[in-house]
Amino acid sequence: MITEFYNQFKQYLLLSLTICFIAGVTLSFHFPSYSLLPLLFTGICVFFAALLAFLGFHGASLILLCGCFLLTGYCHGTRSNGDTPAADDVSHHIEIPQEAVLTGTLARMVTGNRNEKKIVIASTFLRKKDDELLTPVSGMVLLKYDGPWPKSITPGDQLVLRATLKRPDPAKSAELFDYANYLAERNIYLTGTIRSPMLIHEIDSPLRSGPAARLSHVTEKTRTAISGFLFTALPEDHAALYQALLLGDKSSVSPEILEIFKQTGVMHILAISGLHMALLGFFLFSLFFYLTRLSIRLIHRVDVRKLSLLLCVVPLLAYTLLAGSNTPVLRSFIMSLMFILAFCVNRPKSHLTILAAAALVITIVDPESIRSASYQLSFTAVISIILMTPRILSCLPFFRHYERGNGVFRYIIHRVLQLAAVTVSATVGTLPLLIYHFHQLSTVTLAANLLVEPLICFWTLPCGFLSIPFMFIHPPLAQTLLAAGTWSLDIVSVYLGFLNRLPLSVLWLPDLDMVLIILYYGSLLVVLSTASNRIKSISCLTAAVTLALFFLPLTGLNARFRTAHSVSFIDVGQGSSSLLQLAGGRTVIIDAGATTTPGFDCGEKIVAPYLWAQGVGVIDDIVLTHADADHYNGIPSLLKRFRPARLWLPANQSEKPAYQQLVAEALEHGIDVKYPGDGVFITDGYASLSVIDSDRSAHLGEQMSKTRTTTENNDKGLIISLQTPEFSVLFPGDISSVREQELIGAESKLHHDILLSPHHGSATSNSREFLKAVKPRYMVVSAGKRRSGLFPAETTRESADIWGIKMLSTVETGTVTVTGSDKSFSVKTSVEEK
Prior knowledge:
Layout lengths: L1 H10 L1 H18 L6 H19 L2 H24 L16 E9 L4 E2 L4 E12 L6 E2 L3 E6 L12 E9 L12 H6 L3 E7 L5 E3 L8 H23 L2 H12 L7 H9 L10 H19 L3 H6 L2 H8 L1 H10 L4 H18 L6 H15 L7 H22 L2 H8 L3 H31 L1 E3 L2 H29 L1 H10 L1 H15 L5 E3 L5 H15 L4 H23 L10 E4 L5 E7 L5 E8 L7 H12 L7 E3 L5 H4 L2 H8 L3 E3 L8 H12 L3 E3 L4 E6 L2 E5 L2 H10 L6 H6 L4 E4 L4 E4 L5 H9 L8 E3 L11 H7 L3 E4 L12 H9 L3 E4 H4 L2 E6 L2 E6 H4 L1
Parallel strand pairs: 5-7, 13-14, 14-15, 15-16, 20-21, 21-22, 22-23
Antiparallel strand pairs: 1-3, 1-6, 2-3, 3-4, 3-5, 6-7, 6-8, 9-10, 11-12, 11-24, 12-13, 17-18, 18-19, 19-20, 24-25
């Protein structure tokens, strides 16, 4: 066993060393050390590895070499973790959001849809409001602009603009997407907004730049020209899809189409990857091979196959730059380059060795790329295809029958089986990563890929590739080629739309425990190894059990093992959403909404990821306190992804179209819509949810049918009380101080341990008399940063201090979680946990 392992280790030495290097980089992310000790150990390890090799102990030397790569990866990753903005970076000059004049160079192609553009500026000068002179600066700035971008300004051009600049806020909760860190990995530490086209001006000023910058500008100008041609020659939807396929930019594709591609498991088609590079390489090789064979003299002097492959390098490199040079494209180019070099020097070609070389190069250049979903999925998918596809096909006895046969039908069946095996291999290999990063799994991915990949890859993409050079030398022919490829896009859109509408076409799953992921991949590796049949059988069983545990949260059985009640006031910004996890196994959401920019869905982007991070796969009930958008606009996403059994609404219906649409969607999904009355409406073991003074709320609705104001609508909502043996929580919604006084006068049972501050802590609510009546130990304010002076109001802070109430504002603490234990409770915040 040991001898066999050692032989495999020597055969795939580069793969083993690459794994050790990546493991070292990964360790540096979790256990960074900025001392010289790891570097010292690396030097000692290298010395002894060389010494052992010199003395003839090659086996021990190779093993020690793995240790060298592990330590080298650790040191390299630690060094990359310490990257900070340069001393003259523009971000150092902006402490708080403010308007400023920025001078710089348009660094990249402008991306985005018709409503919002994203612009990256390489800054050179900055002038703030009170500055008299321009301050020399450097660094990239990401700006957003609503409206069409001036066509005269292209990458490499200098411009001066006025924008509101700010530093991106880091995520306060570990389960949320950290946009600030995402930008920092791309060396962007400042963002901003341009309010008007009148604030953008191109300037004529000579700019001295290095060769790398000039090459980047040429590349981005070419990308811009191609993008402009696409949207001029084709309808918007077709142009957006072609832009994604050819340039790797999906920002113009409508959210609806993107969602369909994601949920049917064919999103990789729109992300330029090895498939695109392989097709382009095949077409280039065929062209060069045909041209070189036209010369008899050339055939006699050189190997035209090798020459044709070498001629492919420059076009492939050019396309890598045009496609944005992201991880899948770089990986594909490096693999293609390694394959070409191996073929030209007559060396044995191992797919795993070539893949390892690509991974090692990319990791050395950018260690942070290891954390990205693109890096993990692209390499895992290729490894799975290499290792699993031959084994799957070998288990199909009829596959060889179609392989040997002649005829179009047999050829088609043979290729379909191959494509199906590749799809299954990639899906099985990447399944845990897909759930970990995207929390969804398509059940129709095989059916989708069997039609979409041939249509896109063997018709649309070739038409697109052929059209690129003609865009600059013969535009009418380029337009004809592009138009010829659009019919397959229409077929794909209709077919994917049909699959997406099928019941259970996509499963939404919560986060996976790292132990389950390790067990899954460990079991697969044993199954694919040369271990005994008995060990393989045990590994198959382990993999099956692990796979079942992936889907356990969808059954809700895991919730039955809860031992304590908990309430989480989720940090959604200026809005409200609370997660109740009751010890009896019931999961309840009270409100889910936020005041956000158009196109941002807090249910999809904030609430759902938080639920998945908590292992929640099923919601039993959603309760809406009142019909304000900042309390309900995230609920439609939750209805779609979690399919709760019941939706509880206030009896006084709102006439807002969006609210009416919410009710219609609930009924469409088969969700029971209920209107709770006064008293208990949900019980779960020792915990209960009840409505306080709903009769008075209904009376208010009758009296206010003619004259309705925002305050009156808020006062008609549900006032929810949660009672558990350990603690109690009051959810009053957005009631005003008038309603608060009515509750006090009605002698309602207002005393609670925790109060969700009415109306996000505003001065129009939270009267001192109400706070005195509730007598909470903690008051949670669910509010955002932009209006922190009003939510919470200073008077609310003063009232809390007077009555000895500890105030926790989500804008400062992040998500607040209350957990019952031993007839008491504890309070934690996500900022503390992070």
